[in-house]
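Researcher: I'd like a structural prediction for the single chain below. Treat it as a standalone chain; there are no partners to consider.
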Amino acid sequence: MIAGLIVSVCALTSVRADDAKDLFEKNCTKCHGADGKGQTKMGQKLGVKDYTDAKVQAELKDADAIKTIKEGLKKDDKTLMKPAEGLSDEQIKSLVALIRSFKK
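Model: Treating it as a single chain, here is the predicted structure.
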């Protein structure tokens, strides 16, 4: 029984990771790149941070990342990042976990 529960939890975790990758691909890669480095044309234009950089990761607070995903990011009345629409809190947390996985 416990072994079955562990397998179910592992499968659910894997599904969530795949869902986060799909969400990131659909909503984030245009600027942040598939690898999280931000070396896309739009990412370079906007000065997107490199999420593979340990210093960037250390400075990034989960609560701030969640807020930015939910509310977007503006600077001087210019929208740098639109808010993610239609994502649940769980999906947003999975995106933050994925961003954390880019750290090298």
